UniProtKB/TrEMBL annotation:
InterPro entries: Glyco_trans_8 (IPR002495), GNT1/Glycosyltrans_8 (IPR050587), Nucleotide-diphossugar_trans (IPR029044), Polysacch_pyruvyl_Trfase (IPR007345), TPR-like_helical_dom_sf (IPR011990). It comes from the Bacteria. This is Polysaccharide pyruvyl transferase domain-containing protein. Coiled coil: none annotated.
Length: 769
C-alpha cells in the first residue's frame, strides 16, 4: 500500500497528531477529553486535528483554550450521503461517518483518533511508539476479528488515496453492518487485519455494568452507548461516570489542577495553561514553573516578562534564581546579579545562584570575581558541575603569548575547555589553519564569543589586522543566550559597527534544531548588522545559506556565500599530513544526547533497539567502539548494555588533544556519527562516514557533498538493517570508499581555495612575516 509522504523534515522525525470529530452535541465530551489528556499526560503535546462540519465561534474558542496546537478542518458532509442512505440527520450516524475523514489526512506519519465520549486516565506513550499498521482494541461483544473504532492508531500507509478508495467503495456498496457505520466499514475493509491493542486503551463502559469500578490500569475510558455523562448518564455506571466528572472543570479549576501536578509538563501546555493562571492569581510558584519552561525553550524575554510581573517575596529563593537566569540571558546583568544574590540565601538554590554569578563575572572579563563566586558555589555543593567548570576556567589564568598586534588576526570563537566537546575543541585551530599555517598565539588574538564584547575588546581587535568570526554552529539561540545579538557572539550592534578592521565570518552554521526558533526581532537585526559590516560572510553549508538569506533583505543575499567547515578539508590544511598506511579494523559509533527530545521525539527506544541490531551485525566484521565527543555521548554505551546486553568499549575523545582527535579518526575504517563533527572531522581525515541524522545540519552537509545516501534518519523504521547494509557496502571495497571521500573532499577544497584568494584581497595581500 502506497501513500504520499507527509510534509517532510530533513531529520525524518515522525509527525504525530491526535484527531477527533467534534459537533456541538458532543462538545462537552470533547472538552472533558482535552482536559483529561492534559492532566493524565502532561508531558505530551502533539498536534490535535478537530474534524467538524459546523462549530460555533464560541465553541472554537473554548477548544483552543484547552489545547495550544489545535487545527480545525471542516469535513465534506455530502461525501457520506451515499453511505448514510437517508440517515445523515442522525447525529450518531454523521459522527461515525465523518471520522472516516481522518484517513484523508496526508501531512502526518501517525494519527491517533480519540472519540469525544472518551476520557484519558493513563499514559498514552506506548501508542505514540507504534510504527506499524493500523492498531485498535478488538470489540468486546463481537469477537476478536473486529475492531472498535473509538481509538485507532493509524500509520502512514493507511493515510492514503488507495485506502480511502477502498473505504468509499465499501461505503457505497453497503457491504457492511448497517448499524455499525464507520467501524462496520472499517471492519469490512480490514477483515480482521489490524494490530490488536490491549482493552485498557479503549475500555468500554459496558464492561462496568452493575456499577463496577474502573480498573486501575485503564488508559482510555470510553462511554459507548447513547447515554453520555454530560447528558445525565445512565443507571448502573455511577463509578465510571465519577471518573468522567473529574474532568468537568472550569478553566480556573483546570489550570490550577494542571499547575499543581505539572512536573515534567510539556513546554507548550505549561505556557498555555500557566500564563492565564499566573495572570489571574499572581501565584509565584506557578510563575516560576512557567518562566523555567520559557527559559528551557529559549524564550528568555517571555520569562522575564512573566516572572517579573509578580511580587516575589524576599525569602523565595528559587523564583529569584530563575528570574536572575532569565535576566542574564537578555543581558540585563545588573538586575540579574541582584536577583541571584537574593537566591544565594537559600542552601538549596545557592550553588546554582553562585554559579550564575560566576558566569556573569566571567562574561564581563572579571576572572577574580568569577573564581570567588565559583568557590562559594562549591562550598555549598562540592559536586556542583557549573561552579566546578567556572572555577577551573578562571584558576591561574595565563596571559597568552603575544605577537605583534598589527601582524595578528583576532579570532572570535567558542573556545572549549578541558573535557569539552571534542569537535568544538578542534574547530578554532582548524579555522586558523585555513588562514595561516601557524594557529598559535603569535599569529592570533583569541576573543571568546561568549564574553561581552566591550570597549576594551573593541580596542584590542582594532589593533589587529583583521577579525575572523567562526567556525562552528554559532547561529544557535540557546547555547550562550544574550540580549545583545541573540546568537553566540555577545556583541552589541553599536560596537560591531565600530570595528574598523576587516570582519570575516568564516564557516559559521545555522544550528537550530527542527522545532527550535530564534528571538526573531533581535536576531534578525543583529544578523543584518553583521552581514552589512562583514567583508566576507561564509556559511558552512547551503542549508544554512538558505536559512540566513531568508532573514535578510534581497540586497544582501549575494554577500552570503559557501565556505565549508575547515574540518572537512583537514588533509589539505594540516602541514605535513600523510594518510595512514594501515587502518585499525574498527568502526567508531557516536551518538549525541543534548536536546534529546528534539533529536529523538518518541523514538529513542526504537533507535536504541535498531542500533543494537546494527552493532551486533557489524561486530562480526570489525570491532565496534563508542567514540564520545562529550561526557554525555557515553550514554549510548550504558543504554545498549542495560537494555540490550550489547557492550561497546568507550573512547573518551573529550579528553583528547587536537592531534589525537585527528589521528583516531584517520586510523579507523568507518565512523557512524550523530554529531555534526563526528561526520565532518573523520571525513576531513579521509575516513568514510555514515551520519545518524537527528539535526538538519547533517543532511545539509551530505547534500553539499552529493552523498545523501551516507545519512540515515534516527527515526528510520528499518534503521538497523539499513545502517548495516550501508556500512558493509562501504567496508566491502574500502579502498574505493576512501577514494570517494577524497574526491568529495577535493570539491570542498576548491571552494576553500577560491575563498582564500578573496580573503587575501580583503586582508590587503599582506604576506606572513
Amino acid at each position: 500500500m502506497t501513500s504520499p509522504a507527509p510534509t517532510p523534515t530533513l531529520t525524518g522525525k515522525r509527525r504525530i497528531a491526535f484527531a477527533s470529530f467534534v459537533d456541538e452535541n458532543y462538545l462537552p465530551g470533547f472538552l472533558a477529553l482535552l482536559r483529561s489528556l492534559a492532566l493524565s499526560n502532561p508531558g505530551l503535546c502533539e498536534d490535535f486535528i478537530v474534524l467538524h462540519d459546523d462549530l460555533k465561534p464560541s465553541s472554537v474558542a473554548r477548544i483552543h483554550a484547552l489545547h495550544p496546537r489545535v487545527e480545525l478542518r471542516r469535513v465534506d458532509a455530502a461525501r457520506y450521503d451515499t453511505y448514510a442512505k437517508g440517515d445523515q440527520d442522525n447525529y450518531l450516524v454523521r459522527k461515525a461517518y465523518f471520522i472516516l475523514d481522518v484517513f484523508r489526512i496526508r501531512d502526518y506519519d501517525t494519527v491517533i483518533t480519540l472519540d469525544t465520549d472518551m476520557v484519558v486516565l493513563g499514559d498514552l506513550g506506548e501508542l505514540l511508539k507504534l510504527r506499524e499498521g493500523l492498531a485498535a482494541v478488538p470489540q468486546f461483544f463481537y469477537g476478536q476479528h473486529k475492531l472498535n473504532s473509538g481509538l485507532l492508531v493509524i500509520q502512514r500507509e493507511y493515510l492514503s488515496d488507495e485506502f480511502c478508495a477502498r473505504i468509499d467503495a465499501t461505503g457505497r456498496s453497503g457491504a457492511y453492518e448497517l448499524d455499525k457505520h464507520d467501524q462496520g466499514i472499517l471492519n469490512a475493509v480490514l477483515d480482521g487485519d489490524f494490530v490488536q491493542l490491549d482493552a485498557r486503551y479503549n475500555f468500554v463502559k459496558r464492561r462496568l455494568s452493575g456499577d463496577l469500578p474502573v480498573p486501575d490500569d485503564t488508559v482510555v475510558l470510553h462511554f459507548t452507548g447513547r447515554h453520555k455523562p454530560w447528558q445525565g448518564g445512565e443507571a448502573g455506571y455511577g463509578k465510571a461516570e465519577e471518573r468522567w466528572r473529574e474532568f468537568e472543570l472550569s478553566d480556573a479549576q483546570f489550570h490550577a489542577a494542571f499547575l499543581a501536578q505539572s512536573k515534567g509538563a510539556h513546554h507548550d501546555l505549561l505556557v498555555h495553561f500557566g500564563t492565564p493562571h499566573v495572570r489571574r492569581t499572581g501565584d509565584v510558584e506557578s510563575a516560576r514553573k512557567v518562566a523555567a519552561a520559557h527559559i528551557a525553550a529559549g524564550e528568555y524575554q517571555e520569562a522575564v516578562d512573566l516572572l517579573g510581573g509578580v511580587r516575589i517575596p524576599l525569602d523565595s529563593a528559587w523564583p529569584h534564581e530563575v528570574l536572575g537566569h532569565a535576566l542574564m540571558s537578555v543581558s540585563r546583568y545588573d538586575e540579574a546579579r541582584a536577583q541571584l544574590l537574593l537566591a544565594t540565601a537559600a542552601p538549596n538554590r545557592a550553588a546554582t545562584a553562585f554559579g550564575r554569578l560566576a558566569q556573569i563575572a566571567w562574561i564581563h572579563g572579571d576572572d577574580d570575581a568569577a573564581q570567588r563566586y565559583a568557590l562559594d558555589g562549591l562550598r555549598v555543593d562540592p559536586t556542583h558541575r557549573a561552579s566546578r567548570l567556572m572555577q577551573r576556567r578562571t584558576e591561574n589564568p595565563q596571559a597568552p603569548q603575544e605577537g605583534v598586534a598589527a601582524e595578528q588576526l583576532a579570532h572570535v570563537a567558542f573556545y572549549m575547555e578541558r573535557q569539552g566537546n571534542a569537535g568544538d575543541k578542534l574547530l578554532p585551530e582548524s579555522v586558523r589553519l585555513a588562514f595561516d599555517a601557524d594557529p598559535g598565539p603569535r599569529r592570533w588574538h583569541s576573543v571568546h564569543a561568549h564574553r561581552l564584547f566591550d570597549e576594551a575588546a573593541l580596542e584590542r581587535v582594532n589593533a589587529r589586522r583583521g577579525l575572523v568570526v567562526g567556525g562552528g554552529g554559532l547561529f544557535i539561540p540557546d547555547t550562550a543566550p544574550n540580549g545583545n545579538s541573540a546568537w553566540q557572539w555577545n556583541v552589541p550592534d553599536a560596537l560591531l559597527n565600530r570595528i574598523d578592521v576587516p570582519v570575516m565570518v568564516y564557516a559559521v552554521g545555522f544550528n537550530a534544531f527542527d522545532g527550535q526558533s530564534y528571538r526573531a526581532g533581535r536576531f534578525n537585526t543583529a544578523l543584518r548588522t553583521l552581514v552589512e559590516r562583514a567583508s566576507f560572510f561564509g556559511l558552512r553549508n547551503h542549508g544554512s545559506i538558505e536559512k540566513v538569506r531568508a532573514l535578510l533583505p534581497a540586497g544582501l543575499h549575494d554577500k552570503v556565500r559557501f565556505q565549508p567547515c575547515p574540518t572537512t578539508v583537514t588533509r589539505q590544511l594540516v602541514d605535513g599530513w600523510t594518510d595512514p598506511p594501515h587502518r585499525e579494523d574498527t568502526i567508531l559509533v557516536n551518538a549525541a544526547y543534548d536536546r534529546a527530545g528534539l533529536r529523538f521525539g518518541h523514538d529513542y527506544g526504537h533507535f536504541l533497539a535498531e542500533m543494537a541490531k546494527a552493532v551486533r551485525a557489524l561486530g562480526a566484521h570489525a570491532g565496534v567502539k563508542c567514540v564520545a565527543h562529550s561526557l554525555d555521548d557515553e550514554k549510548i554505551a550504558f543504554d545498549l548494555r542495560r537494555e540490550h546486553g550489547v557492550s561497546l568499549p568507550v573512547i573518551p575523545m573529550y579528553d583528547f588533544g587536537n592531534d589525537a582527535i585527528r589521528d583516531t579518526y584517520a586510523r579507523t575504517k568507518l565512523v557512524i556519527g550523530m554529531r555534526g563533527h563526528a561526520g565532518m572531522i573523520p571525513f576531513g581525515c579521509g575516513t568514510p562516514i555514515i551520519s545518524l541524522i537527528s539535526h538538519p545540519k547533517m543532511a545539509y552537509f551530505l547534500s553539499d557533498i552529493d552523498r545523501p545516501e551516507w545519512g540515515i534518519s534516527v527515526h528510520d523504521k528499518n534503521l538497523g538493517a539499513v545502517l548495516t547494509e550501508r556500512a558493509l557496502g562501504l567496508l566491502d571495497d574500502h579502498a574505493a570508499s576512501v577514494a570517494d571521500v577524497h574526491g568529495r573532499q577535493q570539491e570542498l577544497w576548491k571552494v576553500t581555495e577560491a575563498n582564500a584568494a578573496d580573503l587575501r584581497v580583503v586582508l590587503g595581500r599582506r604576506p606572513a612575516p
